[in-house]
Amino acid sequence: MSSVQAWTLVFVALSFGLYIYIAYASRVSTTSGFYVAGGGIPAPANGAAIAADWMSAASFISMAGIIALSTNGYGGSVYLMGWTGGYVLLAMLLAPYLRKFGKFTVPDFVGDRYSESARLIAVVCAIVVSFVYVAGQMSGVGVVFQRFLGVNETLGVIIGMAIVFLYAVFGGMKGITWTQVAQYSVLIVAYLIPAVAISQHLTGIPVPQIGFGQIMGDLNALQAEFGLDPYTGAFANMNMLNMLLMTATLMFGTAGLPHVIVRFYTARSVRAARFSALWALFFISLLYTTAPAIGAFSKFNILQQIPGTAIGSEPGWFKSWQEVGLITVDDLNGNGVIDVAGGIGKGFELAINNDIVVLATPEIAGLPAPIIGLVAAGGLAAALSTASGLLLVISSSVANDVYYKRINPQATEARQLMVGRITMGFAILVAGYLGINPPGFVAQVVALAFGLGAASFFPILFLGIFWKKTTAMGAAAGMAAGLATTLSYQIWTLPIYGGSDGILGISATSFGFVGMLINFIVTISVSQVTPAPSERMQQLVEEVRYPGRSELVVAHADGPLDDGDLELDNR
Amino acid sequence: MDATRRQEYWRRNLRLMSVLLVVWALVSFGAGIVFVEPLNTVSFMGVPLGFWFAQQGSILTFLALIAIYVWRMDKLDAEFGITEYEEEVHGS
């Protein structure tokens, strides 16, 4: 066992032990504890949990690589702006009001505000989006285990499943929340240490956000030398229209993703929900302002070290990633030297998988073995924290919205909990299967999930709060229209299906915003011609807009509205 | 709160939100994308300004916007005498 493997094992074992201990200490016995941690999480902890929930294996492992390798640098800004800008929308437009509404799941809000059929559509959307996402997390776990511990990928996924099972099934949302706080700590430390060390090493400035300006001139020069677009140049990979639409899609999609929204139900109060959004973006921005710096540093190191290297004499880190097939070299011109001229990517002599940039960064920069082990533990923390949040959405949607609300409203608390736990266990099995045998479309569908989130959930959540006259029929028609147009456009333009150029060259990942506008238009139009929601519902929506205590919301939270509540309205 | 006070509270909440969302759109879609090329002619901390906004500046601005929002909403709540908040999720 190499020293890297030994250190990785130490950090992985320590962090897994911590997660299980926390879950044991915060095990639950009530549905409100299981679904929303009893709604009593303080804002800073809730913010850290949102950050860990939100920052998946894609943010931790892939994002810096996507920015540096699959775009010219500037093009990757859509992810940076899109995935953080959504929090502004969440904080101001959704979080406080949904918290005041005080339910367990997103379909809960949709079902109570609109209708039971809208609830079922919402359940299906939530489950599909969550499963697609969770498959990506599980295969991320497999990659980390395989590369750093030499464990077979399948066994890696099974270990990951067992850990999630232990802390999610028994601890429910409460266990998940506190585990995620620990996972956030592990992942951010693991991300920042190598970034600071590399920044110090390359620029003499230990703050990567400042250091990255120091190498930008040289990086642009290197890019030019190898015939690549300038790193900072605008609109090299994507035109302005697609940049705008994709950024907007990721922003509104973020605000529509069920596993993020549910986190605002766990906040202690309306005020804590607002503060949770602030803490969440603070914790997220630590990673999101560092990622572009890591991307630029790695690209700089790669362009300096690799081009012109004779095949067989590459640096050690290069060989170890080549062995697991994440770097491939194809000596097209047969001169025995790796030429980068013409670019990095498929069809060129050198192809580097986006996913290795963060994991390989410490090795590329020659950092010591313990740091490499720590980064591996950080990658696992990012993947497992997001996986557990998603699994909870799946299990609460099934146990609360389908089983309790639709099938057996007489179910006791204990029975609901049991159904929740069984669903969770079953979902973990499916997630593990998808992680071991990832369907080919998973990578694409993850990016598309945001389009679907934006096109289906965001408009009806927003209008449900801000426009009292939104009707159930309007919301159902809007959701159906947004979802159907977005899904068909995506299928039509995706390379693996239709591969068409689409309308105005709008890409599959950018269309969600258009679908959202369609949803808005349909919802508003249909609401105009259908009978307005009941007086009581309009009063409830009004009530949700003010953060203080109110009997109506309390009464509503205790059960479905019935005529008895009218008296409260007239108080 | 009576109906007029409520309307006043909601109106001020919407006004605060609109101002902040205009800034949100201006830094991201504006400085980061639409006006990126003219801004790139200016250098800031070693990188072209438009590029800086797209990769760092917009995120820092978003953070500031939420901070201003929670701070102003706290003041608004205090002004309207809202001191009690729902503490728990009620079982359903």
UniProtKB/TrEMBL annotation, chain A:
Location in the cell: Membrane
Transmembrane segments: 6-24, 45-68, 80-98, 118-136, 148-169, 181-202, 243-265, 277-297, 371-396, 417-436, 442-467, 474-492, 504-527
Domain of life: Bacteria
Pfam families per UniProt: SSF
GO cellular component: plasma membrane
Transport recorded as keyword: yes
Molecular function GO labels: transmembrane transporter activity
Bilayer topology term: Multi-pass membrane protein
Keyword Transmembrane helix attached: yes
Chief subcellular location: membrane
UniProt keywords, alphabetically: Membrane, Transmembrane, Transmembrane helix, Transport
NCBIfam families (UniProt xref): Na_symport_lg (TIGR03648)
Family (UniProt): Belongs to the sodium:solute symporter (SSF) (TC 2.A.21) family.
Name of the molecule in the record: Cation acetate symporter
Automatic annotation (TrEMBL), chain B:
Record-annotated Sodium symporter small subunit domain positions: 6-82
Annotated TM spans: 16-36, 51-71
Keyword Transmembrane: yes
A Pfam family: DUF4212
Keyword vocabulary terms for this entry: Membrane, Transmembrane, Transmembrane helix
UniProt keyword annotation of Ubl conjugation present: no
UniProt xrefs under NCBIfam families: Na_symport_sm
Record's protein name: DUF4212 domain-containing protein
